[in-house]
Amino acid sequence: MLTQILANTISPIVLISGVGILLMVISNRITHVIDRTRQLALYLDKEEGTKLSTLQGEIKIMMQRAHILRISIISLCMSILSSSLLLICVLLEAFDDGVYHYAGSFLLIVSVVGIAIATAALLIDVVNSLRALKMDIEERVL
Fold first, then answer.
1. For the stretch 28-51, what's the b/e string if a residue is b when 16 or more beta carbons lie within 10 angstroms of its beta carbon?
2. Structural contact between residues 125 and 68, judged by C-beta atoms closer than 8 angstroms
3. What does the alpha-carbon distance between residue 88 and residue 48 come to, in Å, rounded to a whole number?
């Protein structure tokens, strides 16, 4: 019985570890977005003309990125929470064959949906990051 319990708890634990690594990556990205937005805001006070509109455009993209990354972080935290509750359900199911199986299935689906939302948001962030880079490069080349 103990080996079965250990075998059933491995998946939620691995899921929590994997999501934790993804959460760390997203946290690093949002930290960079915050730092870059503050840096652009400082430049905004000193510029005028065409460069001013470019800076405003870059800041707008950075704010969009921050919002998208926030959604990603919330989704990952939801995934970690549901995986943790799934772990509890697996342990409870080992002692009582009640509704824990259905609750565990639901929590697994919630966890995977959270990962999917976070991954989609990360892809959108990469696209927005490339848009900001394009604006910056076009400003420097012209």
1. ebbeebeebbeebeeeeeeeeeee
2. yes
3. 58
Spatial separation of the C-alpha atoms in residues 103 and 125, rounded to whole Å = 33
Token pair for 30? 């949002």
Structure tokens at 15: 């899921």
Tell me the pLDDT band of 105, cut-offs 50, 70 and 90.
confident
Provide the whole-model pTM: 0.83
> What does the CA dihedral 108, 109, 115, 116 come to, rounded to 10 degrees?
160
Which position has the higher pLDDT, 103 or 28? Answer: 28
Look up residue 35 and give its two tokens. Answer: 């730092």
Residue 58: how many CB atoms within 10 A of its CB? 21
How far is Cα 112 from Cα 110, in angstroms, rounded to an integer? 6
Q: Does residue 1 register a pLDDT over 70? A: no
Across 83-93, b (16+ Cβ under 10 Å) vs e yields bbbbbebbeeb
- Read off the pLDDT of residues 45-81 as tens digits, 9 standing for 90 and up: 787 766 788 888 889 999 999 999 999 999 999 999 9
